[in-house]
User: Fold this.
Amino acid sequence: MELISLHAKKIMEGCKERAREVGLTFSDETLEYIVTNRDLLELSPKVMIPTLYDYWVHDVEVLREKGRYELYPGNPYETVINTRPPISFYNDNNPDWLNVMIFYHVLGHVDFFQNNAFFRNTWDYDFLGRALSDKRVIAKLRAENGRWVDYIIEFTRGIDNLVGYFGELARLDSPEPERGRKMLDYYFDIFLQSVKKTRISDYIKEVDRYNTFQKQYGARGEEAFFVEVKKEHPEFEAFLEKHLKMKPVQRMDLIEYLMQNAAFLKKEENRWMKSVMNVVRNTSLFFAPQIRTKIMNEGWASFWHEILFMQDDRIKGHEVDFARVNAGVTAMPRVGLNPYALGLRLFYHIKDLADKGKLSHAFQQISNVRQREAFDTGARKGQDMLLWIRENLCDFMFINTFVDQDFMTHNNLFVAGTRLNEKKMVWEYFIKSKKAADYREMLKDSLYHPPAITVDPEKTKEGHLYLVHQFEGKPLVSEYIPNTMLGVEFLWGGPVSLETTEVASVGPSAVSALDSAPGSAPAVGVKPEVNWQRVIYTMQDRKLTKEIL
Assistant:
């Protein structure tokens, strides 16, 4: 692995200038490396982070990738990681015109990393340096404790999808409020409702009184209001002080809870395990935003490499070559999902909507197809809208907001289903639905959505950890429950229970709907009538039991 040549670096710097001219923003410093096939195979299991801690699963994945490469040789055009400075990796045989395209794509990713709000937890430190420090910690602990380090890594990785990513963002984006803000919140949210138990009519009058003071006294309105409050409620000041001294309840994910409360981990000989668990947790938090913005991130990079490449005078004579390569990256499959293609087309769709003023209530009121196509207010706000979306949305919001029927029709999209052709004894694809609502559901089902599992503090007593799965329509994968709970029991140092929801039975109407017409597919929108039941799994002394509630 070595840095790219000065000639290629000059091309990259030229791409940076053109990218900034269209509104992309990113740091001045970037690092670009040339890598071999062997480098790529060894870096891929570590998610292209060279300094990530060593773990035996990585070695297994390297062997698997080598076998796959021998059967299906192929190399990625680029890989970029969200570090400070950003680092990207390239094959060593790319011609200059292809590097122009690839550099624009990389700069789109870097712009997304450094501006999207869901990456807020990665902005203030260099993960590459932290990973190197963590790797040294793991190596030192492995020399002292041997294979037990790998056990702790494995047990913690079994629950690293439960880390409190959104809680981490909330802590970063919610600064400590001033005393005046705390006093106002306490008065209306707690004092009136819980202490004084004020009637709704009186509560509304108090809100009106506060607004009157604000209008009458301006900047001093709140101060004047609380002068009157303290006259009417002499005890208010004492209640407020008591409230401010109380420590706020901090919501912790399962790994945090174990590190802070497990008696097993508090023992002197086991405290080193917390360091290993913290490394796994921090690594999971670093990659969390990338998993939640895959479609947007790839679509954003593809959108800008396409626009900027076609405007670049350095690629004259290679338009056909670009078209061939770009089609391979951004072609929309009839079955399956290509995040590059979907994200690219959605950004073009949004730009068109914003440029023509279609992101408005007036446009939404129009039902006539021809009138919708002809609608154009000349707003030309597409660029501003794209930059705002890049800054504020994730894949779920992106899809849920902008995949509409016009987008479906324009791109000839549909939901595909499969059915068995009993005459030919082959599986066939068929168009199941062309409705935007069904396509959105298919896309949302493909997004990353880990289960919500929290600790129940009331039922966690006498050394027995009680976990609750907040059921959201999808059961846990039952084959993973035993090993995962075995690891949690070890880290907790006592019995562990998990309350979750499983399928009890499938309703007869669903069965008849599937079996009534052999070889035919169920109707779109028809969902099986599933009866659910609440169950408790308990792992104690490495034995798993199940109880139906």
Notes: Confidence is low (pLDDT under 50) at residues 510-522. The first strand starts at residue 2 and ends at 3. DSSP finds 25 helices and eleven strands in the chain.
